[in-house]
Amino acid sequence: ALLRAANALLQQRRYHAALAVIKGFRNGAVYGAKIRAPHALVMTFLFKSGSLREKLRSIAQATYAHSRNLAYFVFTYKGLLAAQSRLQGKRIPFHSFLAACIGGWLVFGDNNPINSQIIMYLLSRILFGLSRLAVEKGYIPQPRQDPFPLLAALVWGTVLWLFEYHRGTLQPSLQASMTYLYEDSEVWHDLSDFLVYNKRTDSK
């Protein structure tokens, strides 16, 4: 009977906006955990030192932070979107921008490693999206050739220049990845740390 009552409540259109906010919170928490847990697992065991317990704690903390922030953001965004739509009687494009700005300020405004990674992830996709939108709207002409090879060249040229000469400007996880790829590959002592391991663990 309780299950039937709950299912009946979920079918009520007048509660749809409020229920969508709750489900958005749920989906944000689940998606954040699914995205962060594998990433944290790989990065922690690849680059961080410490005991197994410390590594597992670090993975759990990163996963929780990502999951929590995404859940809070979706909850805030959808709640503000519903409130604006109710107040004005309809939804307009500016509602989305304003709701997301407020949610971004409140939830992702703290400058920490998790938030920083999420913002940089979004920024790269925003730049691609705005470029495509500018072409669609006719603000810039359609390129005659695919500009992606030039973009790839400039991105890699810039990031390696920053890594070599202004390393502190790059995010710590990117520094760690590049150190592994471009600096650790310069050092070896024998076949073990040339092919099998990245670095020797003994005192030879």
UniProtKB/TrEMBL annotation:
InterPro entries: Pmp4. GO terms for cellular component: peroxisomal membrane. This is PXMP4 protein. It comes from Sterrhoptilus dennistouni. The lineage of its organism: Eukaryota, Metazoa, Chordata, Craniata, Vertebrata.
